[in-house]
Amino acid sequence: MKFTKKMRQELIDEYLNSTGQNTVQVSDLREWIREQPEHPFYGFVFDKDEHDAANQYYDSRIRSIISGLRVTYEVKSIDTSVYDIKVVEKPLHISPLSNRRQGGGYVSFDPDSDEMMAEFRNEASSALLSFCRRYELAIVDANLDLGSIKQMAAKLAVNDLQEAV
Question: H or E segment at 162?
Fold first, then answer.
């Protein structure tokens, strides 16, 4: 079940009203939910046994270790008059969106794989659009063309029709 922002706010309001507190400590909120097995958030918070929850915690710590790593590689050519040498960075691992519903995980990134590049381009497009939404005022204030940035995001996106071609 996906919880809306309104539902999450209602949870916090309900917790604060019932406990009389004016701040939320995550551990206190967890224990408050634990005492209410009929609460809508109970199943979401306590959906795993302790062993599975511990493994999920360990996995998240490992993800934090490898998140954002980049591998730098050079594309070299013999005759530089024919080819341009471009040095680019790529992620060492990516977490494909298509695998996230089954628990996700990181896979080694292969820039020669059309499927992985499509996944990576879609992730880049989404991140660029998110950046535009978050920093729209700053972009406009700096007299930059927001439309051009959004066009870049659109060109990055790979849809099913482009993959079929």
Answer: helix 160-164
pTM tops 0.85, yes or no: no
Closest by CA to 149, choosing from 138, 162, 161, is 138
**Residues β-bridged to residue 73:** 88
Residue 61's contacts (CB-CB under 8 Å, 6 or more residues apart) are none
Per-residue pLDDT tens for 44-102?
888 878 888 888 888 778 777 767 766 666 766 566 566 677 788 888 888 887 777 77
**Is the distance from CB of 72 to CB of 87 less than 8 angstroms?**
yes
User: Residue 93's beta-bridge partner residues?
Assistant: 108
Residue listed under structure tokens 């066009």: 151
CA–CA distance, 158 with 121 (Å, rounded to integer) = 7
β-pairing, 93-94 vs 87-91, is unpaired
Distance of alpha carbon 85 from alpha carbon 113, whole angstroms? 21
Domain ranges of the chain: 5-47, 110-165
HSE-CB for 152 with a 13 A CA cutoff: 12
**How crowded is residue 157: how many other Cβ atoms within 10 Å of its Cβ?**
17
